[in-house]
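Marked as duplicate of an earlier ticket. Keeping the data here for the record.
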Amino acid sequence: MGKFYYGLVAMKQTLKTTLILGASTNEERYSYKALYKLRAANHPVYALGFREGALSGISIHTEHQVSWNDIDTVTLYLGPARQESYYDYLLTLKPRRIIFNPEQKM
């Protein structure tokens, strides 16, 4: 976390946590690119995918972890057929925003 100055008061910049749903270790996937860029910018990231793996020091889990909390943003990299089973789960997380893969339609 960095600091920036507004007037004479130092304000702490807080980085918000992102959950990547549909995370992959395949370099061709947009979920891979998103996770890589978020980590390069030191953003806290959780990764949930269909296969376990690791990327940029982040484990890709196949099930939700109890320790995951305070999720600000969820990004979905799933096709419409796989998205629907996650809708109720996403609502329980109470994220500030949910971003659907722009290539996918609901």
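See parent ticket for discussion. Helices lie at 30-40, 80-83, 87-93.
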